Amino acid sequence: MGRWRAFGFTAPALTLIAVFLVFPALWTLYIGLTNFRLTGAEARRPAFVGLDNYSRALTDETFWNSLWLTLLFVLGSAVLGQNVFGFLLAYALRAAGTVLRRMVEALVLLAWILPSSVVAFLWIAMLDRDAGTLNNILGGATAWLVEYPMISIVVFNVWRGTAFSMMLYGAALTSVPPSHLETARLAGSGRWQTLRDVVLPHLRPYVLTNTLLISLWTFNDFTPFLLTAGGPGNESEIVPVYIYNTAIIGGDMGYSGAISLLVLLINLGLALVYLRASKVRGS
């Protein structure tokens, strides 16, 4: 009776997991083994092609280019940008007044919680060549999204996602024992020495967790499509955008399914690296 009762409590959660996670994963695996398309004869009767789609992906220069751009996007906007700016904001706000701290936190969180379509429209308006805010300020006529597409989406993602890192590091900084900070101050340590020798050692577990989460989110982020649609050409076509263009624009669902599964394996690899690093840190 106890087992059935426990199953009754967990059944809704298991159902949601099966519907929204397990079934889509199995469906992606299936279509990745076929020549399934959005239209045409293959849409009605897809044929089994085995590992042909995966072999095609491994030799597809466009896919490898999108993967390289995605790695640059993750490193630039998540690992470096959001991590650094999130920590700097959290550390600086520790000494700020209550009103100023709440105001800065509200502005940073606002960038994070606004709908992606709204934020993308605001950035397009700001970076527009003819009537953009940035060009009006600088007095130039640069087509930022055309001439510097990757830099534009990296800066955009740093601005958009720094809020999470700021909140995580803000909470992590409260775990630093005040007695350690006071001891460092009495020992004559400067601000940089205190940060290096006292604060950062306490934050290492949080840095690892934050880096993993924002890296996975950024790796699978589709929002840059709203800014550049992967263009011009393929200069900003990160993997999520490439999958969309392949599946929806090109109609090649089978090939896009194979790529999606490869992306899933890459994400699992990142998670395993995190688990390995956690074990090494704990030992």
Automatic annotation (TrEMBL):
GO terms for cellular component: plasma membrane. Residues 68-274 form the ABC transmembrane type-1 domain. InterPro entries: MetI-like, MetI-like_sf. It is a multi-pass membrane protein. The chain crosses the membrane at residues 7-30, 67-92, 104-125, 137-159, 203-219, 255-275. It is found in: Cell membrane. Keywords: Cell membrane, Membrane, Transmembrane, Transmembrane helix, Transport. Belongs to the binding-protein-dependent transport system permease family. This is Amino acid ABC transporter permease. It comes from Virgisporangium aurantiacum. The lineage of its organism: Bacteria, Bacillati, Actinomycetota, Actinomycetes, Micromonosporales.
